[in-house]
Design goal:
Blueprint (H helix, E strand, L loop, with lengths): L18 E3 L7 H10 L4 E2 L1 H24 L7 H7 L5 E3 L1 H4 L1 H7 L5 E5 L2 H19 L4 H4 L4 H17 L7 H21 L5 E5 L6 H8 L14 H40 L2
Parallel strand pairs: 1-3, 1-4, 2-3, 4-5
Helix pairs in contact: 2-8, 6-8, 6-9
Length: 272
Amino acid sequence: MPRQIDLLPTPSHVKPKKLIVLSAPRTGTYGLYLALQKLGFKPYHMSEVLKGGPTAVRILNDGLNADMFHKGKPYGREEFDKWFADYDIIIEMPFFMLHSILKAYPDAKFLLTERDPDKWAKSFTNTIGQMVKLCGSFPMSVFKHFDSFASGMAYMGSSIFSYYTNGYGISPEGEKHLADNYRHYIAEVKRLVPPEQLKVFKLEDKFGWEELCPYLGVPVPDQPWPSLNTPEEFHSVAGPSMKKAAMKGFVGTMSIIVPALATGLWYLRKHR
């Protein structure tokens, strides 16, 4: 079966990448995504996956499977050029396929936002963890099978959450492993990326226009930073897509249940 990325046409033009953000989700990446848009850049972030629907989710999952779980052929520059042709900044996607991204863009300019590991683990659990729990519980555990976007997002979330919690899920042991594995991820980024190509910011030390703009060589705008990085904000962004998928799943479920009930009633009446 061909990878989804192989079905995309070769782009006639690929925007040069001005920055690649190696940060994990829940480290201010959504605010960074909005800020970069305000500065005139075109960043690719998980929000673009939500907009892209089933195709974008399949592309993400194929790349994730190959890089993290060694299932399939890892993406190279050719694949990334197809995926990110119209974007000049990449955010969050490296978290799912770090080694593939670094190999494809060895000379890029990189940025990493760090967060206290224990706080990150709690935030990750309250967002991605809760999404995984929702998708594994009735009725979404049924509805997702009628919507390829929902099933793809459920697979992505559960794969990442299980990997970073060492299979312990939402539990004290899971949060401990989340924090430890996040520390390992940060250390791996700093080990693999040359210091002269990597700018590191810590959320606890403040991260906003004054820190970002000088690194990009652009003026500091006179407006507030666009995000507070709260779990409520995460659910407001991801929620509408999942609700749409749930409704589609409900309709799909009813399309099976209603005819089955009608057939059953017809049979009972015929054989009374």
